[in-house]
Amino acid sequence: MDVALAAAHVSIEGLGKTYKSPRGDVVALQTLDLQLPRGAFVSLLGPSGCGKSTLLKIVSGVEAPSSGDIRIGGEVMRGPPDGLGMVFQRDVLMDWRSILDNVMLPVEFLELPRKEYRPKARELLRLFGLGDFMDRYPWELSGGMRQRAAICRALLTDPQLLLMDEPFGALDAFTRDELNLELQKTWLRTRKTVLFVTHSIPEAIFLSDRIVVMAARPGRIVEVIDVDFPRPRPLSVREEPEFARLARHIREIFEATGALGGGDVG
Q1: Which residues have a Cβ under 8 Å from the Cβ of 230 and sit 6 or more positions away?
Q2: Strand-pair partners of 220
């Protein structure tokens, strides 16, 4: 995909975020400018404290910026945008509800017709390998299965913009690889605009069209890197020389900004 030719879905212009504190202001984000092409998979990659999650909260409308604007489809955002889906690091499933009823939560929240969306929820669960677990409860499922259900929940209302805040960070390496493949397949099928937060350099390279490399104190964009591997990408792409070159280049950026050494980027 040539992301440079795609129309911008999200435009971030001069964005800043400062938290007030009695012991001094904390600059979480400093003058960010970023374009998210429509239908692109964009990753925010950086160490803890660089403002990745803060940026996601601002794009979601949960927090207001201190300066700058966000435009969705050319319109300045004034609160939570329509057509938004969100996946968190924790699945945030309700243990007293079945998996199917957990996936149906956005429909209840938005007061949409249940009869219309219940078949869609079932189909999504089948696509994500959870067809036999719709009537189970979250505590009966593995971590990877729970996160699959959380992704189904985010996709149910067919959002055009999907925000994902380290959704696989708490999973073991094998399950993380499996869900990386599943997410890639889903993205290829739906072509959502995705803004994905991760600490993992290999994960960012494998999934992304574009990687936004960030540094901390203050949170800022250091470099934006386009990733040109053809899709669908097998896990074996990580063994290619160009993959290793990209990973090395990103590590050199983190070394230059002092991010490596604390063990929070890998």
Answers
A1: none
A2: 215
Which residues, including other chains, have CB under 8 Å from residue 62's CB and lie 6 or more apart? 80
Would you say the pTM of this structure is higher than 0.85?
yes
Are 60 and 84 spatial neighbours (Cβ–Cβ below 8 Å)?
A: yes
* Residue among 24, 70, 32 at smallest CA distance from 51: 32
In this prediction, residue 266 has a pLDDT band, given cuts at 50, 70 and 90, of low
Structure tokens at 231: 């899709």
Report the pLDDT value the prediction gives residue 265, as an integer from 0 to 100.
Answer: 63
Tokens of 11: 């435009």
Packing angle, helices 143-155 and 173-190, rounded to 10: 20
Backbone angles phi, psi at 123, to 5 degrees: -65, -45
- Identify any residues that bridge with 16 across adjacent strands, giving them in sequence order: 67
**Host H or E run for residue 201:** helix 201-207
Q: Strands 210-215 and 41-45, how do they pair?
A: parallel
pLDDT of residue 110: 86
Tokens of 67: 């300066």
Q: Torsions phi, psi of 13, nearest 5?
A: -130, 110
The letter for the amino acid at 204 is A
CATH number of the structural domain 41-53+79-213+221-257:
3.40.50.300
Q: In what order do the strands lie in the sheet with 26-37?
A: 26-37, 8-19, 67-72, 75-76
User: How buried is 47 (Cβ within 10 angstroms: 0-12 exposed, 13-18 middle, 19+ buried)?
Assistant: buried
Residue with tokens 């700058």: 68
Question: Mean per-residue pLDDT for 45-57?
Answer: 91
